[in-house]
Amino acid sequence: MATIKPFRGLRPPQNLVEKVVSRPYDVLNSEEARAEAGDNEMSLYHIIKPEIDFPVGTDEHIPCVYQKAAENFQKFQDKGWLVQDDKENYYIYAQTMHGKTQYGLVVGAYVPDYMNGVIKKHELTRRDKEEDRMKHVRVCNANIEPVFFAYPDNKTLDSLIARYTAAPPVYDFIAPGDGFGHTFWIIGNQDDIDLVTREFAKMPALYIADGHHRSAAAALVGAEKAKQNPNHRGDEEYNYFMAVCFPANQLTIIDYNRVVKDLNGLTSKQFLTALSKNFIVEDKGVEEYRPNCLHNFSLYLESHWYSLTARPSTYDDTDPIGVLDVTISSNLILDELLGIKDLRSDKRVDFVGGIRGLGELKRRVDSGEMKVALALYPVSMKQLMNIADTGNIMPPKTTWFEPKLRSGLVIHKLD
User: Fold this and answer.
1) What is the rounded end-to-end Cα distance, in angstroms, of the chain?
2) Is-contact 24 405, C-beta < 8 A?
3) Which of 15, 90, 156, 339 has the most other CB atoms within 10 Å of its CB?
């Protein structure tokens, strides 16, 4: 069962929140962060992308850059740009995209729950990426950015959240760039805090939706601190890391699409003919075609859109991984026809989040940069949870969650 706790969040004053908060560290590169921060010395990018305080081209993984993150984090506290709450709270963080709002509870997730599988994963992590975030957590002694969890639907928590969100929020703003709404409330009443803790204690599992590397890094640093402390009790703050937990029924996974540089020596005609072995291929003309159900794909090639429907003999509905469209397309198109064996390392394939729309696939092919594009029907939360529950791992680049959590609304210190 899931263990959580409230924490004394470190937050920007209400009048500074829009100056402080930022996009997550891993959705933009150093130069984009430098441009977005501009002359705003309060931007969280100075903490999560501290290389922007060094000359262009500085390696973001050298010790002085991590040290700068810690210096800037302290500076934000010294100047009052981040202020710690007097008492332990839970928090509610709501995001609104295209008229749809999802409500997350910000909690301290339990490090041993990550280690023993109560917090369930569906992706592999890379050690180099884990180590980068571990260094950042160590040097700042804080979870600067939250991870993104899903929890099983819970009517009691729905009611509590509805009660709080009927009141005026602490923060309420529209983020620049994407135009998504971000709203924030504090759960400070002790009875309500106890209720949240009890309801989570009934849940057999929590699910990492987004932020596998951040989750791994936060949990590993917490476990590291426990080992290093000769007087470790188990209730220290480092035994917990910050997560925003959303009801699974409120989350939408959007498509994560592929573009490929060449047809592996085939002509377009040969490629389409070869596809017909495992797919029903229909030419949809020049109008954008979006996949309309599982096992239906959209292909863009030489200014034409095609519908590809996997033949029933090509997948096994009882196999939680084999039934995924990302597996079908990887095995029968990218591997079998295009010779792409490893999605993580092959430079001939690239990935495009569905938030960019089918137009981005068309643009990259029409520009000549890519030869062919493949759009997939998105994975469902039910599929994701089933895969995590059975201990399976999704293929690379399967899920894309939007909107992304804004960083800097609240921070969790490890002491």
Assistant:
1) 25
2) yes
3) 90
The structural architecture, per CATH, of the domain 256-377 is: 2-Layer Sandwich (3.30)
pLDDT digits (tens, 9 = 90+) for 95-150: 999 999 999 999 999 999 999 999 999 988 888 889 999 999 999 999 999 999 99
Q: Which of 174, 179, 120 is nearest to 152 (CA)?
A: 120
Beta-carbon-side half-sphere exposure of residue 83 (alpha carbons within 13 Å) = 11
| Spatial separation of the C-alpha atoms in residues 272 and 144, rounded to whole Å | 48
Rounded Cα gap, residues 109 and 241, in angstroms: 5
247 vs 103: CA distance, rounded Å: 8
By DSSP bridging, strand 240-247 and strand 147-151 are: parallel
**Residues 318, 321, 324: CA angle, nearest 5 degrees:** 90
Name residue, tokens 């009660």.
163
Q: How far is the C-alpha of 124 from the C-alpha of 212, rounded, in Å?
A: 8
- Reported as type and span, the H/E element at residue 106 is strand 100-110
Alpha-carbon gap, residue 165 to 335, rounded angstroms = 48
Query: Would you call 315 helix, strand, or coil by DSSP?
Result: coil
CA-closest candidate to residue 150, choices 415, 383, 411: 383
Over 90: is that where the pLDDT of 292 sits?
Answer: yes
Peptide bond before residue 146 is cis, with ω within 30 degrees of 0: no
With a CB cutoff of 8 Å and minimum separation 6, the contacts of 376 are 255, 256, 257, 258, 291, 297, 325, 326, 329
Q: Report domain extents, the chain.
A: 4-252+402-413, 256-377
Identify whether the C-beta of residue 244 lies closer than 8 Å to the C-beta of residue 405: yes
pLDDT of 320 strictly over 90: no
pTM over 0.85: yes
DSSP states of 117-153: TSEE--S---HHHHHHHHHHHHHHTEE-S-EEEEE--
Name the DSSP letter for residue 175: P
Burial of 207 (0-12, 13-18, 19+ CB in 10 A): buried
